[in-house]
Specification:
- There is one protein chain.
- This protein is an alpha/beta fold.
- The protein is built from eight helices and ten strands.
- It has helices at about 20-30, 45-55, 70-75, 100-115, 155, 170-175, 190-200, 220-235, and strands spanning about 15, 20, 40, 60-65, 90, 120-125, 135, 140-145, 160-170, 205-210.
- It has a four-stranded mixed sheet. A two-stranded antiparallel ribbon has the order 1-2. Strands 3-4 form a two-stranded parallel ribbon.
C-alpha cells in the first residue's frame, strides 16, 4: 500500500525501525525457513522498494501490483511466477516487524500436522477496532473472516482478529484465488475470502494464536516512533 497515514514521501515499508527498513524485518523473519522462492509484491514506489530489498537480500523475486486492489489481488500477482509450484505458500505483510521465525515455523507445523488446506495467525485482543474478525469453532478451526467495515454488530463483538499471515497448501490456494470478487464496501479483492471459500467447502483452516504485540503493524509515524522507543528501551 501507499501508507498515506505515514505522511511521508517514502513507501511505508521503507521507513526504518532499529536501523533497517520495515520490509527487511519481514524478510529476516522468513529467511531462516529457507524458502524455495521468495516473492515480494511491490506497487507504490516499486523501484525504490526493489532497490532497498536487493541491497540486503539475494535471490528475491518481485511481482508488480500496479493498482492497489487488495490483498487477494496482491497474492494473485505472484501466481505467474509460481506456476506449477505445489508446496506451501507463506503470505505475510511487509509492515509487521515483530513477527518471529519461530511463529512461522509453528504456523507451518500446524498445517502439516492436520493436513490442512491452510493455517493462519490469529490474536485475541480487547479492543479489536478495525481488524478483521475471525470466527472459529471449538477446535480452533476457522469458519470465516469478516472485514470490520463489512461486519454486523454481533461480529464486531468478537475478539479474535486476523493477524494477516497465512500458510496455504498451494494446491488449495490457486483455485480459490481465481474465485475472488470485489463485491464489498472497499471494492477490493480480499485474501480473507479465500479462507471463507475453503471453510465452505469443508477444507480445514487452522487458527494459530499469537500475542497482540507480535502482530503489530505500522500504519502511522506515531506508531513507528512508539515502537522504536520500546525497542530502544528493551535494549538497555
Amino acid at each position: 500500500g501507499k501508507g498515506t497515514r505515514m505522511k511521508s514521501d517514502f513507501a511505508k515499508v521503507l521507513h526504518t525501525l532499529g536501523g533497517k527498513p520495515l520490509i527487511a524485518w519481514a524478510l529476516d523473519a522468513v529467511a531462516p525457513l529457507h524458502p524455495n522462492r521468495t516473492v515480494v509484491i511491490v506497487g507504490h514506489q516499486a523501484e525504490s522498494v526493489q532497490s532497498a530489498v536487493n541491497e540486503r537480500f539475494a535471490n528475491i523475486e518481485f511481482a508488480l501490483q500496479s493498482e492497489m486492489l487488495g490483498t487477494g489481488d496482491a497474492v494473485k500477482r505472484a501466481m505467474p511466477l509460481l506456476e506449477g509450484f505445489e508446496g506451501e505458500v507463506i503470505v505475510t505483510c511487509g509492515d509487521v516487524p515483530l513477527l518471529k521465525t519461530e511463529t512461522l515455523r509453528r504456523l507451518i507445523q500446524t498445517r502439516r500436522e492436520n493436513d490442512s488446506a491452510a493455517s493462519m495467525l490469529v490474536a485475541q485482543i480487547d479492543e479489536p477496532g478495525s481488524y478483521g474478525r475471525v470466527l472459529c469453532d471449538e477446535e480452533n478451526r476457522v469458519l470465516q473472516i469478516v472485514e470490520a467495515k463489512d461486519a454486523t454488530p454481533e461480529i464486531l463483538a468478537v475478539r479474535n482478529v486476523n493477524a494477516g499471515t497465512y500458510c496455504f497448501d498451494a494446491k488449495a490456494l490457486w483455485p480459490q484465488l481465481a474465485r475472488l470478487t470485489n463485491n464489498n464496501k472497499s471494492g477490493e479483492y480480499y485474501l480473507t475470502d479465500v479462507v471463507g471459500f475453503l471453510a465452505n467447502e469443508n477444507q480445514r483452516v487452522d487458527a494459530v494464536f499469537i500475542g497482540e504485540r507480535e502482530m503489530t503493524g505500522i500504519n502511522t509515524r506515531e506508531q513507528l516512533d512508539e515502537l522504536e522507543a520500546e525497542l530502544q528501551s528493551e535494549a538497555t
